[in-house]
From TrEMBL:
The active site is at C53 (nucleophile). Belongs to the glutamyl-tRNA reductase family. The record marks H102 as: Important for activity. This is Glutamyl-tRNA reductase. One of its GO terms (molecular function) is NADP binding. Substrate binds at T52, C53, N54, R55, S112, E117, T118, Q119, Q123. It comes from Alicyclobacillus vulcanalis. Pfam families: GlutR_dimer, GlutR_N, Shikimate_DH. Coiled coil: none annotated. Pathway: Porphyrin-containing compound metabolism; protoporphyrin-IX biosynthesis; 5-aminolevulinate from L-glutamyl-tRNA(Glu): step 1/2.
């Protein structure tokens, strides 16, 4: 029996710098080219290529996980112009059950830059569709990716894994939405262009506001951030800040100069032209950028970093609970896929066994007709029916028991024992292939460690 192995080899934001990820990011035509190269080899029998801005992963099936990973990186190196050694230094390889589990974690957003994000599921679905269209998948990858996508859907619909703010910047966006609702028609201003302000600007941009203004002392930095988030950049001056207070629905500031850049009087002046329209002011700077007295106005919703960190702490606890629920779904998905693999080894033996029984019935029936040529059509049908009933009754319990024992133990050797007992020839089993799904440890790219399970 031929043994084959499931593996995934890839680079992601956890192992490779953005400069390298940019070079290996593949468009649709390049993904299809790589799929064709893999399909035409004997080293990778089935494959799916997932390429996003934060990861390039190739899920494969082949006689050897190590040889398959080597070949995949050779193909990627030729397609991207990146040296193979560079790819290996930043690559990871997972094998067997860990490869399947990794795919499910990715689809659920547990391995994403933004924890629990939902876009990756659509990207994996698209990658699978491209592989299908290129004829790069077979029964194993088809079943595996359907299970991966199913688990990803469950994580999105049955938990809130991606809906809780676990960074101060995202918590700020969440609070703004709680006060104002949908931000798609709102005007947003971000004061600052440092790390925290940039994160917040990206989160706000994802809400598709009517406008997004970046104010910063260094206009060049503001322009870079504004270009990234699709906003407008201006110099941070008092007049521009007053105008932002008068117009914006949400204003976030993250400078921390050591003295307030927004005073109570500035807010009071801005409210005169707002005609009661509320404003959410999010001060995530330490020291604070906004005078605390600015919160005294009824239409001003002022939150500082302590307020936001309280939201983060509460949401971290909830996220841990949701992550546990998602991991349980992944366990179920891995178990379902493992059971399916076991069934695929047992089914050919059972089918061959039934075919053997039917062949014996035909031989006996032919012999009987030679000895009793006077039997009419009706009598022949009755005899045939009862003989087939005997065959099925004889096989029912052995077949039922071998399926149950194989599934309970995860070892399809029971099917081989049954085949031997009934004298089935190997040719009758249709060239069975065993997919090894033992746990395989992560293999760093440069280590070339031996896979932890059988290679055919």
């Amino acid at each position: 029996m031929e043994c084959v192995n499931i593996f995934v080899v890839g680079l992601s934001h956890k192992t490779a710098p953005v400069e390298l990820r940019e070079r290996v990011s593949l468009g649709e035509s390049e993904v299809r080219h790589v799929l064709t190269q893999l399909r035409e080899s004997r080293t990778v029998l089935e494959s799916v290529v997932v390429s996003t801005c934060n990861r390039l992963e190739v899920y494969g099936l082949g006689p050897s996980a190590r040889a398959g990973s080597d070949f995949v990186l050779d193909v990627v190196a030729k397609a991207t112009g990146v040296e193979r050694g560079t790819l290996w230094r930043h690559a990871y390889v997972r094998q067997g059950e860990e490869a399947v589990r990794h795919g499910m974690r990715v689809a659920c957003g547990l391995d994403s830059v933004v924890f629990g994000e939902t876009q990756i599921l659509g990207q994996m679905r698209e990658a699978y569709q491209w592989a299908l269209e290129e004829g790069a998948t077979g029964s194993v990858m088809n079943r595996m990716f359907r299970e991966i996508i199913h688990v990803g859907k469950r994580a999105q619909t049955e938990t809130t894994i991606g809906r809780e703010a676990v960074s101060v910047s995202y918590a700020a966006v969440q609070l703004a939405r709680k006060v104002l609702g949908d931000l798609s028609g709102k005007q947003v201003a971000v004061v600052g262009a440092g790390h925290m302000a940039s994160l917040a600007a990206r989160h706000f941009a994802a809400q598709k506001p009517q406008s997004l203004l970046i104010l910063n002392r260094t206009v060049a930095r503001a322009e870079v951030l504004a270009a990234e988030v699709g906003g407008e950049a201006r110099a941070l001056e008092e007049e521009g800040l007053r105008q932002a207070l008068a117009q914006a629905d949400v204003l976030l500031t993250a400078i921390g100069r050591g003295r307030p850049v927004i005073t109570r009087s500035m807010v009071a002046d801005a409210l005169a032209s707002r005609r009661g329209r509320p404003i959410v002011v999010l001060d995530i700077a330490v020291p604070r950028d906004v005078e605390a007295e600015a919160s005294q106005f009824a239409s001003v919703y002022l939150y500082d970093v302590d307020d936001l960190e309280g939201v983060v702490a509460a949401n971290l606890e909830e996220r841990a609970r949701q992550e546990e629920a998602v991991e349980a779904m992944i366990d179920e998905g891995v178990a379902a896929f493992s059971q399916w693999l076991t069934e695929q080894e047992v089914v050919p033996v059972i089918a061959a066994l039934h075919q053997r029984g039917e062949a014996i019935e035909r031989e006996v029936m032919a012999s009987l007709l030679r000895k009793l040529p006077h039997l009419g059509e009706r009598e022949q049908k009755v005899i045939h029916k009862h003989m087939m009933s005997i065959v099925h009754q004889l096989l029912r319990e052995p077949v039922k028991n071998v399926k149950e024992m194989a599934l309970q133990s995860g070892n399809p050797a029971y099917a081989e024992t049954l085949a031997a007992l009934f004298g089935l020839e190997p040719a009758a089993l249709g060239g069975r292939v065993r997919v090894e799904l033992e746990r395989g440890a992560e293999t760093p790219g440069g280590a070339h460690a031996q896979p932890a399970f059988s290679q055919g």
